[in-house]
Amino acid sequence: MSALVPPGSTDTVFSVDTLLKYMGDDDKARAVVTKIVRDACAPAMTPLLQAHQAIAEGRLADAGRIFHALRGSVGSLGARRLVTASLALELALAEQRMADIPALFAAVEDAYRQVLDQAGDWLAAHASDRGRP
């Protein structure tokens, strides 16, 4: 667990329960949410690789935009832990706090990997609901 998320935190890694509930929690809602989860996770680690490159090249504003977009796309999946970590990193990038960026980047990476893992598990568990992966 990262320093940004204290032990016993209620920040979720991944949960689409609320999204499903708002959409009616029926077959149609599950199909739509499945597509949302797939689309949000499709880029896999590409955004982090792009942000890492941008930071290495001194393009901190570009890196901040990448994390902002990632937070927006994955935030709807109940990824509160990632949102918290990403916000802290975006602020450090905007303030050019170079000493803080590596640890904050690592926290975002850890949170994002957890989202991808749990989303993958969710997709695998719900693939049988519709008879396809």
UniProtKB/TrEMBL annotation:
Alphabetic keyword roster: Phosphoprotein, Two-component regulatory system
Natural source organism: Rugamonas fusca
GO MF terms, alphabetically ordered: protein kinase activity
Domain HPt: from-to ranges: 29-126
UniProt xrefs under InterPro entries: HPT_dom_sf, Sig_transdc_His_kin_Hpt_dom
Pfam families in the record: Hpt
Protein name: Hpt domain-containing protein
GO biological process assignments: phosphorelay signal transduction system
UniProt keyword Phosphoprotein present: yes
SUPFAM superfamilies: Histidine-containing phosphotransfer domain, HPT domain
Residues the record lists as Phosphohistidine modifications: 68
